[in-house]
């Protein structure tokens, strides 16, 4: 094709506002028309460039698919490129494009010029997707309601059935061609004449009709149905078709009297109850004394998803009955007590649901109030402990100044300051562990993994003289429980164990272990070597405000809250006064789902750090902390770069250094830890991330990286980075 022909083609296509491209395969250059550049979100101006521009707008899989089509065409396997692809244009809008291309010129037998057009088919594609969704929704609605639709075209006298109508008639979609006579012949003999009359009136007098009858399937089985019909008219009021719905009401009719009796029981329960069969048909529901016409449907009353609904059905069918207390499906805007019972003989699920939102909020507020009250009672002791810590630290620092000015050895006073800070940290850890607001969202998680993920927190809370061990056999199971509350319960038991050990002496041992029972139950054991619990006190320890500890060491709130939380979430807590380690032995029991694969968390890595020639980026707005971390890591052979704010962070990651590890504070004045990690991982997607913070909400599972709580010393930093 000559250059004059090319120019003429360009003019014609530009004149009809066609988006096109022309690829010079010899010189590897592509001509993009102004219309095509506009679709891609750029200036409405033609451009000559390369194929690289498409890498900005196509994902990897789509790009590979396009390259494959091009290669197939160049090899002669297909006569042209014809493909519909998703893109993201320059403005970030998602579009669908239909591209057609073909080689139009060869030089010495080799393809030299390719030409193609592009059309924006986003609107058409979205319409197809929406129509498919609507059709899927209609089919799902018919299946759930056990009903199907039909349409009789008056002019052609043809009848069409949906798949569900075929099923109600006991037929497959391809077994017969439905006709009016065949539809009538299977009805009860006494109702056929009535059906024909109603149908005649619908066509000639445009009267809708309703009929309750029965039909006989080819197998001889009788199915009770209700038929509802309306007349479809044109703009002039002329009848075009009769449109109707078939609904299988066999089960609801057979069980109607029985359900009346069950409904009478419900009037004594005074909560909504719903009867739904195996096929998700609502058999009977208008039986609640609180029925208001709006909440009479289960999905209107309790706003869970289809997936959650099906999971409850599955569990109820397996277990006969399930009960869930304080369950929510909208982030605890509403809270329910829920019971689902499966009556196998009748194939009926009985759903009893009670909205307990107000009661739940009152209980949660009471928990918070109890903790605040306890803080008020113990604030004097806490203030005394903190003042002691500050007094020791201040006195030691002043002695450091004096000794340093005299040129004397100051190592003993440095140790005093460090020990004072460690004691102060222990006080704040106890306060944080106690005052955290309880997590209420029930999630499914692996408790063994959760314990190992938080083992560093357990070690931080305990005195250095108390040893804690984690003893688990290979296992992998899931429990449904508030994840943050699970760890809070264990922290409570561990801190109680520490107090019991201190009642006996300075040092001791705490062990956390687990085992699976045959009936899908998981046991978590917390044992200690403390003073134990006398037999006469075992029945009292879960009572509110009862405490067997020494004065000023407890007020009986902790174990009462543990017992209440376990009970509300279908768990169990047991206690032995004297166990294998000599002290108390607490056992937490959970329902669990055992998974096939075995899991055993790895022991922490060696504390010896080997970071020689490793590039590490440290971000913290506290200059002294950042410098301390950097100095420590540099002493281990690492190359460390420090940033104290967002601007410095951006400068560091845009430098020529390729970083291997990123250590960041979680809360900074000008950006969050998550924002910092996102910035760094854009440049270094495989970088290892660690975090440090003075604020930790252990129930926040959205943070995917290990966290070290401030303040910390070099030994704790080494152990943390070796995990």
From TrEMBL:
Which residues does the record list as 4-aspartylphosphate (modified residue)?
A: 665
Domain PAC, residue spans: 81-133, 209-261
Q: Identify the Pfam families for this entry.
A: HATPase_c (PF02518), PAS_3 (PF08447), Response_reg (PF00072)
Q: Which reaction does it catalyse?
A: ATP + protein L-histidine = ADP + protein N-phospho-L-histidine
The record's annotation in Gene3D superfamilies points to: 1.10.287.130, 3.40.50.2300, Histidine kinase-like ATPase, C-terminal domain, PAS domain
Tell whether Kinase is among the UniProt keywords: yes
Q: Which CDD domains match?
A: HisKA, PAS
Q: What is this protein called?
A: histidine kinase
Q: Which organism is it from?
A: Colwellia marinimaniae
């Amino acid at each position: 094709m000559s250059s004059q022909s090319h120019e003429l083609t360009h003019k014609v296509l530009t004149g009809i506002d066609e988006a096109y491209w022309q690829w010079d395969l010899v010189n590897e250059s592509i001509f993009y028309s102004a219309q095509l550049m506009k679709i891609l979100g750029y200036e409405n101006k033609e451009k000559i460039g390369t194929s690289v521009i498409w890498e900005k707008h196509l994902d990897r899989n789509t790009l590979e698919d396009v390259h494959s089509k091009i290669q197939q065409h160049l090899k002669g396997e297909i006569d042209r490129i014809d493909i519909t692809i998703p893109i993201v244009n320059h403005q970030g809008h998602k579009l669908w494009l239909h591209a057609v291309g073909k080689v139009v010129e060869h030089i010495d037998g080799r393809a030299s010029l390719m030409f193609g057009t592009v059309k924006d088919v986003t609107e058409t594609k979205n319409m197809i997707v929406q129509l498919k969704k609507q059709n899927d929704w209609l089919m799902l609605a018919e299946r759930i309601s056990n009903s199907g639709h039909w349409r009789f075209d008056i002019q052609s006298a043809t009848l069409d059935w949906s798949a569900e109508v075929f099923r109600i008639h006991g037929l497959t979609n391809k077994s017969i061609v439905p006709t009016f006579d065949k539809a009538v012949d299977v009805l009860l003999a006494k109702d056929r004449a009535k059906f024909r009359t109603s149908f005649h009136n619908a066509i000639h007098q445009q009267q809708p009709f309703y009929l309750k009858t029965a039909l006989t399937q080819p197998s001889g089985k009788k199915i009770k149905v209700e038929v509802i019909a309306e007349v479809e008219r044109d703009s002039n009021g002329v009848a075009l078709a009769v449109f109707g719905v078939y609904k299988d009401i066999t089960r609801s009719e057979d069980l109607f009297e029985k359900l009346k009796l069950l409904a009478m029981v419900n009037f004594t329960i005074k909560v909504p109850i719903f009867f739904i069969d195996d096929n998700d048909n609502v058999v009977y529901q208008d039986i609640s004394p609180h029925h208001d016409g709006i909440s009479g449907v289960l999905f209107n009353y309790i706003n869970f998803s289809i997936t959650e609904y099906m999971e409850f059905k599955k569990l109820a069918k397996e277990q006969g009955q399930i009960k869930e207390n304080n369950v929510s499906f909208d982030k605890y805007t509403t809270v329910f007590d829920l019971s689902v019972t499966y009556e196998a003989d009748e194939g009926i699920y009985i759903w009893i649901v009670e909205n307990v939102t107000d009661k739940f909020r009152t209980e949660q507020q009471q928990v918070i109030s109890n903790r605040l009250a306890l803080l008020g009672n113990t604030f004097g002791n806490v203030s005394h402990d903190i003042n002691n810590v500050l007094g020791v630290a201040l006195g030691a620092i002043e002695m450091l100044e004096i000794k340093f000015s005299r040129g004397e050895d100051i190592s003993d006073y440095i140790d005093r300051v460090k020990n004072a800070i460690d004691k102060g940290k222990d006080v704040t850890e106890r306060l944080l562990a106690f005052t955290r607001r309880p997590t209420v969202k029930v999630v499914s998680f692996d408790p063994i993994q959760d314990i190992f993920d938080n083992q560093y927190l357990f070690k931080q809370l305990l005195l250095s003289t108390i040893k804690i061990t984690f003893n688990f056999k290979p296992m992998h199971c899931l429990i449904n429980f508030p994840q943050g509350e699970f760890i809070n319960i264990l922290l409570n038991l561990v801190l109680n164990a520490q107090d019991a050990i201190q009642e006996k002496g300075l040092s001791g041992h705490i062990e956390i272990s687990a085992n699976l029972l045959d009936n899908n139950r998981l046991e978590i054991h917390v044992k200690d070597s403390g003073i134990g619990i006398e037999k006469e006190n075992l029945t009292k320890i879960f009572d509110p405000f009862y405490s067997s500890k020494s004065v000023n060491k407890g007020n009986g709130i902790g174990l009462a809250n543990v017992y209440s939380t376990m009970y509300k979430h279908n768990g169990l807590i047991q206690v032995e006064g004297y166990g294998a380690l000599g002290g108390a032995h607490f056992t937490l029991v959970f329902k669990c789902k055992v998974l096939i694969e075995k899991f055993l968390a790895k022991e922490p890595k060696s504390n010896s750090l080997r970071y020689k020639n490793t590039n590490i980026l440290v971000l913290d707005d506290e200059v002294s902390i950042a410098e301390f971390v950097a100095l420590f890591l540099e002493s281990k052979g690492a190359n460390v770069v420090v940033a104290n704010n967002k601007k410095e962070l951006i400068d560091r990651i845009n430098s020529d250094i390729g970083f291997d590890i990123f250590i960041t504070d979680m809360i900074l004045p000008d950006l969050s830890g998550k924002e910092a990690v996102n910035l760094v991982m854009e440049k270094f997607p495989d970088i290892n991330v660690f975090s440090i913070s003075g604020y930790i909400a252990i129930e926040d599972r959205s943070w995917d990286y290990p966290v070290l709580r401030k303040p910390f010393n070099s030994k704790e930093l080494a152990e943390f980075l070796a995990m």
